[in-house]
Specification:
The protein is an alpha+beta fold and 105 residues long. The protein is 21% helix and 33% strand. It has a domain at 37-48 and 56-76.
């Protein structure tokens, strides 16, 4: 039996700023995360940004964060702040979901 180490799994909280609300950014993020086998969640914030938590292999999470710079066709990303997160941060998603689209906070 193998033991999973922190090198096998990365968890990052990201805040994406720019033109990222009202253009399908959350739905795009959910779809991209599912395609990349990423766990987590995404939601709009009242300040106009989008916040997400991504968990998966380090390469998958890094690729997801890189893809967030592009986003859907109408997006214009100005900044992405990414920081280490923990498994507790995943707790905000719905229990039955691998990746959840959450309400605005």
């Amino acid at each position: 039996m193998s033991t999973r180490t922190s090198r096998d799994r990365a968890i990052r909280r990201v805040v994406i700023r720019g033109r990222v609300q009202g253009i399908g950014y959350r739905v795009w993020t959910e779809r991209e995360a599912q395609l990349r086998s990423i766990e987590g969640w995404v939601r709009n914030r009242r300040d106009g940004s989008v916040e997400a938590v991504f968990a998966g292999t380090p390469n998958a999470v890094a690729g997801m964060i890189e893809a967030c710079w592009q986003g859907p066709a109408l997006a214009h990303v100005e900044a992405i702040d990414a920081q280490e997160a923990s498994a507790a941060d995943l707790g905000e998603r719905r229990l039955s979901d691998k990746f959840s689209l959450l309400p605005t906070v």
